[in-house]
Amino acid sequence: MKNIARTVGFKPGERNIFFHILTACNLSCRHCYINKKQHGTEQLSKEQIVKWMTLFADADKKSNMIFLGGEPTLHPDLPFAIEKAKELGYFVTVDSNGYLFHELLHKTTPGLLDFLSFSLDGPDSQTNDPIRGEGVFDICTANIARAVSAGFHVSVIYTVSRKNLHALHRMVPLLEKLQVKKFFIQVLGLRGKSARADSEEVSRVSREQWLDTVPEVARLAAEKGIHVTYPKVFLLAEEKFECAGLVAENYFIFPNGRVYQCPLCEDHPINAYMIENNRLVKNEGLDEDSFFKLNIAEGCVMNKLLQPDTIEYDDKGVPLYRISCCLLKQEIG
Ligand code: SF4
Ligand code: SF4
Q: Could you tell me if the CB of 71 is within 6 A of ligand 1?
């Protein structure tokens, strides 16, 4: 039904490959989740990119290839990688911070690149730039406008924190003005910089703040013809809990060869797989998939281990709600 948010269950036969082709970036966002100690500092070569993409290609499944960094457009071979990904049958997305290095818009085409996604954390420079860096809002929005007018399918990702929740509703007129038809609202994950003690200012919003604001802004955006996706986060009593690590296929690949199935695990050396000599190898012993099977009253195990403050309990110690898999989404529009 139109304009009612629906939960998008994990789809059997669909897979998402989140491919970090380098970790370098021109920005230094306050909530950056890249952790070079864990993810390396390498920039993959053209040959490695093709070989690693081939490891995950499967013509029988709908496979999404999402190129990430760092800033993926800093990689001079990104247009080549996009073309190869398309040849291998992937639906291709690039997530950029908006700088579009190496003239990406001139070196690829909307026929090869299915979606170009821009990260923006505010509807104006006063909100966005204290989080993402001075001058970033103007550059990012100018490049969104260029990409839209060049015929690319453009989406925007907004990572909600205490620093920018108040401005989320003002994204709706901005997206309309920029003619962006797809909007992803993201919850701040406690990884990388935001997991550190000094990150108080860019911290997660409370359950009440999230539920009071995000679904309503998504509804308002949907009324304007914008398709919105946001994480479920809090399950209702009657909703089923499922761990994507068990029922879906998601691979988060880093340039040092680590391959995770769960993004919450990325700050820890518990990756289920490793790429070694261009081969995908299953890690043995205690790794992330040992946790996926644990059945706990709080829902997501990794959330309970890494972000216990997100759960509230009654006076008997029973959780008041369960936390969904971070990969479970709501859609509206
Ligand atoms: S643009 Fe992305 S990789 Fe770069 S600093 Fe910001 S969050 Fe980190
Ligand atoms: S976020 Fe939680 S539920 Fe989702 S894959 Fe990771 S451990 Fe499983």
A: yes
The upper half-sphere exposure of residue 14, i.e. CA atoms within 13 Å in the direction of its Cβ, equals 7
Q: Would you say the CB of residue 28 lies under 6 angstroms from ligand 1?
A: yes
pLDDT, tens only, 146-176 = 999 999 999 999 999 999 999 999 999 999 9
Per-residue pLDDT at 101 exceeds 90: yes
| Residue 320 alpha carbon to ligand 1 centre in Å | 34
First to last CA, the chain: 9
Number of residues in the chain: 333
Could you tell me if the CB of 24 is within 6 A of ligand 1? no
Residues near 189 by beta carbon (within 8 Å), at least 6 away in sequence: 33, 263, 264, 326
Of residues 160, 145, 82, 75, the one with CA closest to residue 115: 82
Q: Is 295 in the pocket of ligand 1 (CB under 6 A)?
A: no
Neighbours of 83 (CB within 10 A): 17
Q: Which of 33, 34, 94 to mutate to test the pocket of ligand 1 (most atoms within 8 A of CB)?
A: 34
Ligand at shortest distance from the CA of 95:
1
Pocket flag, ligand 2, residue 326 (CB < 6 Å): yes
- Domain 6-239+328-332 in CATH 1.10.1040.50: no
Question: 327: which strand partners?
Answer: none
Mean pLDDT for 174-186 is: 97
CB contact at 8 A, 298 and 322: yes
